[in-house]
Design goal:
Distance between the termini: 16 Å
Strand order of the largest sheet: 1-2-3-4-5-6-7-8
Structural class: mainly beta
Shape: globular
Number of helices: 0
Helix content: under 10%
Length: about 120
């Protein structure tokens, strides 16, 4: 049995008071192309970095288009390092972790596995 893993590329969108991550990805499970949208409010004085807690919504666009999963996405970064740490959780036992590196100022590539 092979280990489940996935790759996601997020586009980072800043509309002023909400930071949105719009991601397209695929997994080793069955190579379904999916979409994830995560958002967090920017509180006055916050840095406009992607670190923080997001409300996330995952939608399969090919495969099972009616499948929707809501979860919490937490993104952390160790000061002085280039790598971001990702963690997805919800009440239905979803727990995935990953690492990401910014491709440019508005995109980040993330590799993740089931935890």
């Amino acid at each position: 049995m092979s280990l489940f893993h996935g790759i996601i590329v997020f586009e980072i969108l800043d509309n002023g008071n909400v930071l949105i991550l719009n991601g397209i990805y695929a997994t080793s499970d069955d190579f379904k192309i999916s979409n994830e949208i995560a958002k967090r409010e920017i509180i006055e004085g916050d840095k406009k970095d992607i670190v923080g807690n997001y409300e996330s919504r995952y939608i399969e666009t090919l495969g099972e288009p009616d499948k929707v999963i809501n979860c919490l996405l937490k993104i952390d970064k160790t000061p002085g390092k280039e790598v971001y740490e990702f963690e997805w959780t919800n009440n239905e036992e979803l727990h995935q972790i990953g690492i990401g590196i910014k491709i440019n100022s508005n995109r980040i590539a993330v590799s993740y596995i089931n935890a």
